[in-house]
Amino acid sequence: MWSIVAAIIAAFLSSFLTTIFASRRYRDERAWDRKASAYAEVISGIKKSIRYSESFKAMYDSQNNGDYDSTLPKLLKESQSAKEDIEKTTDSHFIFLSDKAINKIEAYLYDDSHLLPELSSEELAEEDTIKHKQLLRELVEISQQELSHPLSHLYSRLKQAFSATLNFFKSSKSG
Q1: How many angstroms separate the CA atoms of 146 and 143, rounded?
Q2: Which of 27, 113, 123, 165 is most buried (CB neighbours < 10 A)?
Q3: Of 129, 54, 81, the residue nearest 62 (C-alpha)
Q4: Which is nearest to 47 in space by CA: 122, 130, 133?
Q5: Distance CA 76, CA 32 (A)
Q6: What is the mean pLDDT of the chain?
Q7: Residue 56 neighbours by CB distance under 10 Å
Q8: Mean of pLDDT values over 35-52
Q9: Predicted local distance difference test score (pLDDT) of residue 154
Q10: Residue 96: CB partners within 8 Å, gap ≥ 6?
Q11: Residue 151 pLDDT > 60, yes or no?
């Protein structure tokens, strides 16, 4: 009789714990998906800004082209739109981006100190492109750190420990 009661209690307890662990894992995976989506959207917006900056530079290189005056306002509008998209994405995914990423994005959005008034239009476009590419590199690095799976770190640590142990035994045999 007691064995049946113990079996029922054990089954109930194991199913309860399994449910808790499964729901926690689901929430963690869902949060990771949202974080990955947030970084992907911001990085996509920055890539758009890079394309517009490079288009500005190409236009300045060929100013004698007849469509310069008509294309410049369009590119300026698209560039501003890309920045607004990045700002909206940052605002809507604020809780999924790290503080470090948000600081980098806000510096990008609100700091135009690199755009000095004495620079020519071509130099301004070049400086803007450099700033965009630097931010892209930094955000890709931050996102890779943020999105790396903790088990992958455990695996790499175990691999390092195993390798160090093998090296120790090899050196002690040869010595």
Answers
A1: 5
A2: 123
A3: 54
A4: 133
A5: 35
A6: 78
A7: 22
A8: 85
A9: 53
A10: 31, 34, 35, 37, 38
A11: no
- For residues 131 and 172, is the Cβ–Cβ distance under 8 A? no
Interatomic CA distance for residues 5 and 18, integer angstroms:
20
Contact present, 52 and 82 (Cβ < 8 Å): yes
- Residues 90-143: pLDDT tens digits? 888 888 888 898 888 888 888 776 666 676 667 777 777 888 888 889 988 888
Q: What crossing angle do the helices spanning 2-61 and 99-110 adopt, rounded to 10°?
A: 20
What's the confidence (pLDDT) of residue 39?
86
Q: What are the φ and ψ backbone dihedral angles of 149, each rounded to 5 degrees?
A: -80, 135
Q: Would residue 169 be called left, alpha or beta, if left means φ above 0 and alpha means ψ between -120 and 50 degrees?
A: alpha
